[in-house]
Specification:
The chain has 122 residues and is mainly alpha-helical. A hairpin with a 2-residue loop joins β2 and β3. Helix content is 50%, strand content 11%. The protein has 5 helices and 3 strands, in the order ααβββααα. Strands 1-3-2 form a 3-stranded mixed sheet. It has one domain: Arc Repressor Mutant, subunit A (Orthogonal Bundle), CATH 1.10.10. The structure holds zinc ion. The site of zinc ion (ZN) has 4 residues, from α3 and α5.
Amino acid sequence: MGWIVEDAIRALVVRFGRYRAWDWPAFLERAGMRIVWADVMPWGVPAGISGRVIVVQRGYSHYDTALAVWHEIGHAVLHIGSVADWLAMTCGDLIIAKQERQATEFAWCYPDWGCQEGLIDH
Ligand SMILES: [Zn+2]
């Protein structure tokens, strides 16, 4: 795990504790965030985030929804600015690619998926 994601997770564990992957609604409530469902997502992405609102494509499986929500929470925890801002910068596409990897790493490592005992120290 990269040190940026690891540091963010350690800080989040101190502040919020850990959540099971399926308990994302409880995390969102505690964090003052909410989810809305969309029939069609722009650019073909499965989910997105704007401020404290996560948008997820309707019809996703229980598992895919949880992964998408934790990925977006990862963006909220790790990243500032907008995709448009980053893409306007030189090599912005590389920055976006790194942020996507970090958000996915967060989604796998912060919540307890029931198969990662010992992945991070408590
Ligand atoms: Zn993302």
